[in-house]
Amino acid sequence: MSTDLLMQVAAAIAGGQIKVIDLTQTLRPSTPVFVLPPPFANSDPFSISVISHYDDRGPAWYWNNLSMGEHTGTHFDAPVHWVTGQHNPDGYTDTIPVRRMIAPAVVIDCSKEAAADEKFLLEPSHFQVWETKHGRIPDGAWVLMRTDWSKRRDPASFLNMKEDGPHVPGPSAAAMHWLVDNRNVNGWGVEAVGTDAGQAFTFEPQFPAHNLMHGSNRFGLASLCNLDQLPPTGSVLITTPLKIEKGSGSPLRVLALVPA
To answer: Shortest CA distance to 197 belongs to which of 183, 210, 186?
Structure first.
């Protein structure tokens, strides 16, 4: 491969022939985080405190201290995040092969179904219908479930907690089995706070997006946004988590490269 190819890509980005779409929510103290019932431990919310701001504490510089859990806001789930992926030596944020952090993506549009049913479940048939229209899901691709859930700006509406648990759309166990067993994907991404449906604790297996994806050395992306700006196929994602030693995940800035 010649260096000309990389220069052509850089020139196309600079010239606008390739658009860069930000799929990342802004981190702020109000960023919703997943809430587990007792007796389970919960993640700390995002917090920020000023160290100095061009003042007596530091007259020429501005900087902050940050505190949060690894799985806060738009974040990356590494294989070791789940018990099924715990023995993978390449499953930590600092050991994942970096070539897998740049990969194509396909978008399964479930926005109309999710608008009509807040507990909508994506099934294998939705993948099959998508492939009839757009072709086989490419090897090594991210599969992203568009629900427009990220347009819920109010944190309570975004988490959508009810008496029987969260009411949030996501994949069924059958859908995750189908994807893991039949397609060689890089990972699974959603707009909700976690990669599973809100009621996935009642599924068999429980939390199949976590259980099956991470158990087969695939990744997760949660709290994505702007999926309505991506085509069904043809985009490329850049998904680089922080290089945390033995990290189970990380907030990250997800960028999509899309032909203009």
So the answer is: 210
